[in-house]
Predict the 3D structure of the following.
Amino acid sequence: MAEAQRADDPQAARRSEILDAGLRVLVRDGWARTSMNAIAKEARASKETLYNWFGDRRGFFAALVRHTAQNALEAVDADPSEMTAWLEATGQRVLQLLLGDTSIAINRAAIASVQEGGELAAILIEEGRGKAMRQVAAQIALWAEEGRLHVPEGADLAADDWLGLLKGDVQLLALLGQGKPLSAPEIETRARRAAQQFLRLYAA
Amino acid sequence: MAEAQRADDPQAARRSEILDAGLRVLVRDGWARTSMNAIAKEARASKETLYNWFGDRRGFFAALVRHTAQNALEAVDADPSEMTAWLEATGQRVLQLLLGDTSIAINRAAIASVQEGGELAAILIEEGRGKAMRQVAAQIALWAEEGRLHVPEGADLAADDWLGLLKGDVQLLALLGQGKPLSAPEIETRARRAAQQFLRLYAA
DNA sequence: GTGGTTCCGTACCGTATGGTTCGGCATATC
DNA sequence: GATATGCCGAACCATACGGTACGGAACCAC
């Protein structure tokens, strides 16, 4: 992840390494136990470096959220002419991302930081969810223009319904650490069901 | 809330008062800043009492979660012969509850406590969500038996779809402190839409 | 080699927390 | 009225945190 710059800019590479280390600690120990000490130790960096580069604790986490949100979400590459297949593939991808360890840890941290006046949540929403859902809504709008979907209340609301059907309660339950994590086939099933239901609601 | 016992058992009443005070602090300041000191101050109680009665910090929050989860969820009282109306009323109620200050604060605390080895989340799921969703699923199963709904994959999955349509992403966004809280009419609209969509998917 | 820069490792400081202890007041019981 | 109990308020302790400061090693320029 982000090793791209390692050759040309060792400083940026080191920065990326440190952020990755921070992410490891966050995933392993949770926000509350992710102290600057722990990060420095994991990254084999000095606290002085951390503070010099990231300002303070919140600055570090802001950088961390940006770092992972950018790395996490690549463009959806399925063929949009096949609505069902596209929805299923995209749904699967989104679910995998949302239920992954890093996403869960980051979301937990963002939620925890809300009442500490954190802007983490805003960054996360804009950089993560926002981009993805705009993509989906745009695709839905396109299909509507082609006459293949009927979305009288707008593509955004339709996209919201799709996301609701897709996620159900599983993301919240994952955030709450409810034991059973979804297996790959279960994720596939959820994505397929969401696509079906969505088309049942909106197919022209 | 829970003043019922105040007359007969002053100890239980005081206990309830203290828990309410703890909840106020939690809602106002968030989990991280809800120290035992702050609770004692808000409740005008001594820390000694807190530790005597609740064991330790986690014990206090476990009691707090139980206290509020029990108080929060009263039975749904709408008339179940009218499917649409029942779904709308129930949906509205659930949304109001889920998006209320206390629910958000409690959920945030539970999420934060997951990685601290907390059992808060388990209590919250069982005592809150579990009970409510069992009620809804049971009602759906009843309608299915009457031949008014068609739920080939079972009432539980159908109830899940309803919840997904109802909540969409709004609960997560609220947990993330995303600025705009839903107004009462917006909640009403969401509940109505969820009921409509649900019936479109499952009406016989 | 000399000076400068960068960064690691560690020691340090002030603060705040969880949890314990203790003196004192009020109430209840006999 | 004496004694016991329950609880408040405040002081106390050990710990851990965020953040700063300092000595030394590696590297670079010249």
Remarks:
- Residues 11, 14, 40, 44-49, 52 of chain B lie near DNA strand D (CB under 10 Å from a C1').
- The CA atoms of residues 108 and 138 of chain B lie 29 Å apart.
